[in-house]
Protein backbone atom coordinates (compact mmCIF):
# COMPACT_ATOMS: atom_id res chain seq x y z
CA UNK A 1 0.00 0.00 0.00
CA UNK A 2 2.70 2.49 1.11
CA UNK A 3 6.36 1.56 0.91
CA UNK A 4 9.19 3.54 2.53
CA UNK A 5 12.88 3.19 1.71
CA UNK A 6 15.75 5.34 2.98
CA UNK A 7 19.12 5.87 1.27
CA UNK A 8 21.75 8.49 2.12
CA UNK A 9 19.30 10.42 4.27
CA UNK A 10 16.68 10.57 1.52
CA UNK A 11 13.42 8.72 2.12
CA UNK A 12 11.34 7.53 -0.83
CA UNK A 13 7.64 7.18 -0.07
CA UNK A 14 6.03 4.99 -2.73
CA UNK A 15 2.32 4.60 -3.39
CA UNK A 16 2.38 0.86 -3.97
CA UNK A 17 -0.74 -0.33 -5.78
CA UNK A 18 0.47 -0.52 -9.36
CA UNK A 19 -2.37 -2.77 -10.54
CA UNK A 20 -4.81 0.08 -9.86
CA UNK A 21 -2.42 2.84 -10.94
CA UNK A 22 -1.80 3.53 -7.25
CA UNK A 23 -5.38 4.62 -6.59
CA UNK A 24 -5.89 5.96 -3.08
CA UNK A 25 -8.26 4.16 -0.74
CA UNK A 26 -9.11 5.47 2.72
CA UNK A 27 -6.64 2.96 4.18
CA UNK A 28 -3.90 4.09 1.78
CA UNK A 29 -4.43 7.74 2.71
CA UNK A 30 -4.23 6.89 6.41
CA UNK A 31 -1.06 4.86 5.85
CA UNK A 32 0.41 7.70 3.80
CA UNK A 33 -0.22 10.22 6.59
CA UNK A 34 1.28 7.85 9.17
CA UNK A 35 4.37 7.37 6.99
CA UNK A 36 4.87 11.13 6.61
CA UNK A 37 4.60 11.60 10.38
CA UNK A 38 7.16 8.82 10.94
CA UNK A 39 9.57 10.53 8.53
CA UNK A 40 9.05 13.83 10.32
CA UNK A 41 10.26 12.21 13.56
CA UNK A 42 13.18 10.38 11.96
CA UNK A 43 16.19 12.66 12.41
CA UNK A 44 18.26 10.60 9.95
CA UNK A 45 15.90 11.61 7.12
CA UNK A 46 16.81 14.93 5.51
CA UNK A 47 14.54 14.90 2.43
CA UNK A 48 11.61 12.93 1.03
CA UNK A 49 10.65 11.80 -2.47
CA UNK A 50 7.02 10.97 -3.25
CA UNK A 51 6.48 8.55 -6.12
CA UNK A 52 4.27 5.75 -7.39
CA UNK A 53 4.96 2.10 -8.12
CA UNK A 54 5.06 0.99 -11.73
CA UNK A 55 4.62 3.51 -14.54
CA UNK A 56 2.13 5.86 -12.85
CA UNK A 57 2.21 8.28 -9.94
CA UNK A 58 -1.42 8.03 -8.83
CA UNK A 59 -4.76 7.79 -10.63
CA UNK A 60 -6.63 9.53 -7.80
CA UNK A 61 -9.15 8.27 -5.32
CA UNK A 62 -10.28 4.65 -5.45
CA UNK A 63 -13.57 4.97 -7.36
CA UNK A 64 -14.76 1.56 -6.17
CA UNK A 65 -14.71 2.86 -2.60
CA UNK A 66 -16.91 5.83 -3.50
CA UNK A 67 -20.01 3.69 -3.90
CA UNK A 68 -22.14 3.62 -0.79
CA UNK A 69 -25.15 4.98 1.07
CA UNK A 70 -25.90 8.69 0.68
CA UNK A 71 -25.06 9.62 4.25
CA UNK A 72 -23.67 13.14 3.96
CA UNK A 73 -22.49 13.36 7.57
CA UNK A 74 -20.60 10.06 7.32
CA UNK A 75 -19.01 11.08 4.02
CA UNK A 76 -17.92 14.40 5.52
CA UNK A 77 -16.25 12.59 8.42
CA UNK A 78 -14.48 10.32 5.96
CA UNK A 79 -13.33 13.31 3.91
CA UNK A 80 -11.92 15.05 6.98
CA UNK A 81 -9.99 11.88 7.82
CA UNK A 82 -8.71 11.68 4.22
CA UNK A 83 -7.20 15.16 4.58
CA UNK A 84 -4.57 13.93 7.05
CA UNK A 85 -1.86 13.61 4.35
CA UNK A 86 -2.41 17.27 3.41
CA UNK A 87 -2.04 18.40 7.01
CA UNK A 88 1.06 16.24 7.44
CA UNK A 89 2.74 17.55 4.29
CA UNK A 90 1.71 21.18 4.88
CA UNK A 91 3.66 21.24 8.15
CA UNK A 92 6.54 19.01 7.01
CA UNK A 93 9.79 20.93 7.56
CA UNK A 94 12.02 18.87 5.28
CA UNK A 95 12.33 19.10 1.47
CA UNK A 96 9.68 17.11 -0.42
CA UNK A 97 10.05 16.24 -4.10
CA UNK A 98 7.27 14.57 -6.09
CA UNK A 99 8.64 12.33 -8.86
CA UNK A 100 5.72 11.95 -11.27
CA UNK A 101 5.58 9.35 -14.02
CA UNK A 102 2.46 8.47 -15.98
CA UNK A 103 -0.80 9.80 -14.59
CA UNK A 104 -1.25 12.15 -11.65
CA UNK A 105 -5.04 12.45 -11.67
CA UNK A 106 -7.48 13.82 -9.12
CA UNK A 107 -6.20 13.32 -5.59
CA UNK A 108 -2.90 12.13 -7.06
CA UNK A 109 -2.39 15.56 -8.63
CA UNK A 110 -3.45 17.16 -5.33
CA UNK A 111 -0.81 15.19 -3.40
CA UNK A 112 1.91 16.08 -5.91
CA UNK A 113 1.02 19.77 -5.47
CA UNK A 114 1.80 19.47 -1.75
CA UNK A 115 5.47 18.84 -2.57
CA UNK A 116 8.08 21.60 -2.67
CA UNK A 117 9.03 20.56 -6.19
CA UNK A 118 7.56 18.33 -8.89
CA UNK A 119 9.89 16.55 -11.29
CA UNK A 120 8.01 14.81 -14.10
CA UNK A 121 8.81 12.30 -16.80
CA UNK A 122 8.18 13.23 -20.43
CA UNK A 123 5.14 10.94 -20.43
CA UNK A 124 3.61 12.35 -17.22
CA UNK A 125 0.06 13.69 -17.40
CA UNK A 126 -1.78 15.78 -14.84
CA UNK A 127 -5.51 16.24 -14.45
CA UNK A 128 -7.93 17.55 -11.85
CA UNK A 129 -10.57 15.17 -13.14
CA UNK A 130 -13.13 15.80 -10.40
CA UNK A 131 -15.62 17.63 -12.64
CA UNK A 132 -15.88 14.57 -14.89
CA UNK A 133 -17.61 12.78 -12.01
CA UNK A 134 -19.50 15.74 -10.58
CA UNK A 135 -17.06 16.15 -7.70
CA UNK A 136 -15.26 19.04 -6.04
CA UNK A 137 -11.43 19.10 -6.08
CA UNK A 138 -10.10 17.88 -2.75
CA UNK A 139 -6.90 17.33 -0.78
CA UNK A 140 -6.17 21.08 -0.85
CA UNK A 141 -5.83 21.45 -4.65
CA UNK A 142 -7.89 24.64 -4.53
CA UNK A 143 -5.37 26.03 -2.04
CA UNK A 144 -2.10 24.95 -3.65
CA UNK A 145 -2.74 25.31 -7.39
CA UNK A 146 -3.88 28.98 -7.47
CA UNK A 147 -0.73 29.91 -5.55
CA UNK A 148 1.35 28.41 -8.35
CA UNK A 149 -0.51 29.40 -11.52
CA UNK A 150 -3.06 32.01 -10.41
CA UNK A 151 -6.84 31.93 -10.10
CA UNK A 152 -7.79 32.21 -13.77
CA UNK A 153 -5.65 29.33 -15.02
CA UNK A 154 -6.78 27.25 -12.03
CA UNK A 155 -10.41 27.82 -13.00
CA UNK A 156 -9.71 26.67 -16.55
CA UNK A 157 -8.04 23.45 -15.43
CA UNK A 158 -10.66 22.71 -12.75
CA UNK A 159 -13.75 23.53 -14.81
CA UNK A 160 -12.56 21.79 -17.98
CA UNK A 161 -11.00 18.80 -16.17
CA UNK A 162 -8.64 18.54 -19.13
CA UNK A 163 -5.41 16.61 -19.17
CA UNK A 164 -2.19 18.57 -18.82
CA UNK A 165 0.94 17.14 -20.49
CA UNK A 166 4.21 17.38 -18.58
CA UNK A 167 5.65 20.02 -20.91
CA UNK A 168 2.64 22.32 -20.47
CA UNK A 169 2.69 21.74 -16.71
CA UNK A 170 6.32 22.88 -16.73
CA UNK A 171 5.48 25.97 -18.80
CA UNK A 172 2.78 26.89 -16.25
CA UNK A 173 5.24 26.52 -13.37
CA UNK A 174 3.60 23.44 -11.86
CA UNK A 175 6.52 21.19 -12.78
CA UNK A 176 10.12 22.19 -12.08
CA UNK A 177 11.79 19.85 -14.57
CA UNK A 178 10.77 17.35 -17.25
CA UNK A 179 13.16 14.45 -17.79
CA UNK A 180 13.13 11.12 -19.65
CA UNK A 181 11.24 8.42 -17.74
CA UNK A 182 14.38 6.36 -17.18
CA UNK A 183 16.12 9.36 -15.57
CA UNK A 184 13.24 10.39 -13.28
CA UNK A 185 14.26 8.59 -10.09
CA UNK A 186 17.91 9.60 -10.43
CA UNK A 187 17.06 13.27 -11.00
CA UNK A 188 14.62 13.36 -8.07
CA UNK A 189 17.28 11.83 -5.83
CA UNK A 190 19.88 14.37 -7.01
CA UNK A 191 17.51 17.22 -6.21
CA UNK A 192 16.67 15.74 -2.81
CA UNK A 193 20.37 15.41 -1.95
CA UNK A 194 21.01 19.01 -3.01
CA UNK A 195 18.16 20.31 -0.86
CA UNK A 196 19.17 18.15 2.11
CA UNK A 197 22.64 19.70 2.12
CA UNK A 198 21.18 22.90 3.59
CA UNK A 199 20.92 23.75 7.28
CA UNK A 200 17.78 21.91 8.43
CA UNK A 201 16.80 24.72 10.78
CA UNK A 202 17.20 27.45 8.16
CA UNK A 203 15.39 25.35 5.57
CA UNK A 204 12.49 24.64 7.92
CA UNK A 205 12.07 28.29 8.87
CA UNK A 206 12.30 29.44 5.26
CA UNK A 207 9.71 26.87 4.21
CA UNK A 208 7.34 28.04 6.94
CA UNK A 209 7.76 31.69 5.94
CA UNK A 210 7.09 30.89 2.28
CA UNK A 211 3.93 29.01 3.27
CA UNK A 212 2.68 32.14 5.04
CA UNK A 213 3.39 34.55 2.17
CA UNK A 214 -0.23 34.82 1.01
CA UNK A 215 -1.77 34.71 4.48
CA UNK A 216 0.27 37.32 6.38
CA UNK A 217 0.45 41.04 5.71
CA UNK A 218 3.78 42.64 4.89
CA UNK A 219 4.56 43.82 8.41
CA UNK A 220 3.71 40.49 10.02
CA UNK A 221 5.87 38.63 7.53
CA UNK A 222 8.80 40.98 8.19
CA UNK A 223 8.40 40.38 11.92
CA UNK A 224 8.38 36.61 11.42
CA UNK A 225 11.40 36.92 9.14
CA UNK A 226 13.31 38.85 11.81
CA UNK A 227 12.56 36.20 14.41
CA UNK A 228 13.64 33.38 12.12
CA UNK A 229 16.83 35.16 11.11
CA UNK A 230 17.69 35.82 14.76
CA UNK A 231 17.53 32.08 15.39
CA UNK A 232 19.62 31.33 12.29
CA UNK A 233 22.26 33.94 13.10
CA UNK A 234 22.81 32.52 16.58
CA UNK A 235 22.78 28.85 15.59
CA UNK A 236 25.75 26.46 15.62
CA UNK A 237 25.01 25.85 11.93
CA UNK A 238 26.08 29.42 11.10
CA UNK A 239 29.22 29.20 13.22
CA UNK A 240 30.28 26.01 11.48
CA UNK A 241 29.43 27.42 8.03
CA UNK A 242 31.39 30.62 8.73
CA UNK A 243 34.43 28.65 9.88
CA UNK A 244 34.34 26.49 6.75
CA UNK A 245 33.87 29.58 4.56
CA UNK A 246 37.02 31.11 6.09
CA UNK A 247 38.87 27.92 5.15
CA UNK A 248 37.40 28.16 1.61
CA UNK A 249 35.45 24.95 2.20
CA UNK A 250 31.84 24.26 1.29
CA UNK A 251 29.29 24.44 4.12
CA UNK A 252 28.56 21.13 5.80
CA UNK A 253 25.47 20.79 7.96
CA UNK A 254 25.12 17.00 8.20
CA UNK A 255 27.23 16.62 11.33
CA UNK A 256 24.84 18.47 13.62
CA UNK A 257 21.62 16.89 14.76
CA UNK A 258 18.52 19.04 14.36
CA UNK A 259 17.94 20.50 17.84
CA UNK A 260 14.23 21.01 17.20
CA UNK A 261 13.72 17.30 16.64
CA UNK A 262 15.57 15.96 19.58
From TrEMBL:
Pfam families: ECH_1. Gene3D superfamilies: 2-enoyl-CoA Hydratase, Chain A, domain 1. GO terms for molecular function: isomerase activity. The keyword Glycoprotein does not apply. Keywords: Isomerase. PANTHER family: EG:BACN32G11.4 PROTEIN, ENOYL-COA HYDRATASE. This is Enoyl-CoA hydratase/isomerase family protein. It comes from Paraburkholderia guartelaensis.
Amino acid sequence: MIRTTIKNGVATLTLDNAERKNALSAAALAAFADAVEALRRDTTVRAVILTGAGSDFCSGGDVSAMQGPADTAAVRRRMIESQRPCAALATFDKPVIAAVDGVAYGAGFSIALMADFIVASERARFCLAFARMGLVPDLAALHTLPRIIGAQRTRELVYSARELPAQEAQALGIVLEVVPADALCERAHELALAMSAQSPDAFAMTKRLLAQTFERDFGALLDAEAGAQAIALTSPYLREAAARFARKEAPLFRWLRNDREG
